[in-house]
Design a protein that fits this description.
190 residues, 63% helix, globular, single chain, alpha/beta, 8 helices, Rossmann fold
Amino acid sequence: MNLILFGPPGVGKGTQAERLRDTYTLHHISTGDILRVAVKEGTKLGVEARRYMDSGGLVPDEVIIGMVAEVLEKDKKEKKGFLLDGFPRTEDQARALDKIFRKLEIKDVVVVSLDAPEPELIARLVKRGKESGRSDDTEETIRYRLKVYHKQTSPVLDYYKQRKKVRAIDGLGKIDEITKRINTAVKEFA
């Protein structure tokens, strides 16, 4: 089983990713984690990424995509399923990811798309900010992140909908209820 977990900030991707990882024994692939590991291990792509990070710049798509390709290739060799979290974030990344899937002959990928109304997302993130002390979870910052999400990332969902790979999940309710909805949708795929 191979999944892409998709949705706006505050919809519960992190919480659900942990549950999916454990339930289906998937390799949880977070691009942030990949970057940190590659930099720490000093891989060729890690060294290149570090140059951008040290200068305060964003790591280019080609570097991130290369790192994701390396991890997916390793998982395929180990016959592990994966759960991509936080990637792809743009249509260009989605197209590049599809090329990787074709090259590695990965065909069984489903997008699990969580969604909830914007006022709920803002309330969740403001609460998280207060509880965790995260300084980036202010209402102003959250609204900006949601605006960026709608402009840059949500078109990725349309890209996948055209390929009939999306399982839409209502992200409202108790965590266990949402998990149950996801599991029902994923079992239809399996």
